Amino acid sequence: MNPYVVWNRQVAALALKELKQLWRDRGLFAFVVYVFTVNIILAAGGVSFELNHVPVVVNDDDRSEASRDLAYRFQPPYFSVLGEISDPKQALQMLDREQARVLLEIPNDFGETLREGSRPATVQLLVDASHANSGYLAASYAASIAGKFGAEWSQRNLAREGINVSAIPRVENRIRLWHNADLNEPWFHTIAELTTMMTVVCILLPAAALVREKERGTIEQLLVSPLSPLQVMLAKIIAMEVVMLAGVAVALFGIMQPMYHVPMKGSLTLLFALTAIFAFTNAGLGLTAATFARNSGQTGLLILLIVMPIVTLSGTWTPLESMPGWLQTVMTLSPLRHFVDIVYSILLRGAGMGVLWQSVLAMIALGAVLFALGLVRFRRQFT
To answer: Exposure winner among 13, 170, 246, 284, fewest CB in 10 A?
Structure first.
């Protein structure tokens, strides 16, 4: 028989063995099912990054029509006015106890200053920024409300003096939102969670399979059989590829598209092909980590040590532009850094290889290096 056929059959048989072992390991199998189904649903309905009913208290010393108009503009869904507080100390205590997140203080001459129009009318906004993101958004939204309110009063004063407001030059800011015009957060959350958990599974499965062989003492049996270290590693990677592609298919067609209508504008064939390359790249990283571990506990700690910086600094949840230049350069060595751009570009933008070829080449290069490193470590350790 052709030796190449025999070689391929041996790899296929060993890959089938890996799939059967995963099926029998009910805990690990349940984890894989969870991350591609329930975990995606939880991510879609998780904490929103948008401002949502932030509690506001008002200390209105003016009690004029203008002050009431300004306070009334802090409305849901962004703000929720709890009421008026006449004692400033009590209002500050509510901020300290997190009973309120925003305090709007209006001075007693606010309305009169607006009507005169001779000097700026000022109010004070105190924001609890212990939660930095919501604090920043609350201050930004409040500034927008105050800016619009001030512009309306300026127009009233000009019209009162007989000036044609429509004839005054002005700048119109017209914003166009591409690819996610409705700012649909579940699209972002589900794709981000999918890429994150794909990284975890791609590294975990081959590493767990190799360490399992060590713990059971079957790795020596494999190596004394007519199998090469390359065949052993390829079989584990192929089995993981099958699981990964099946999981991504379930997540896309069973959860993300029917439940949250995540668009799939690009080629799904290209997406699954690049997913296979991404899985291969991370599998090499997982097998390399497994050669340094002696048991499952050490494997878990090593994977945690590897996955956390990869996910945190990949650009999935934090913008790369906010990182130092040297860190952005370092993160080009992360497969997830390139895969994040690929997934978003294919699903939301409909991009093809003409746009993605640089990210694809980077992933292929990283995959080849990591697989070679894992193979060298494996041979040194067991042969």
So the answer is: 170
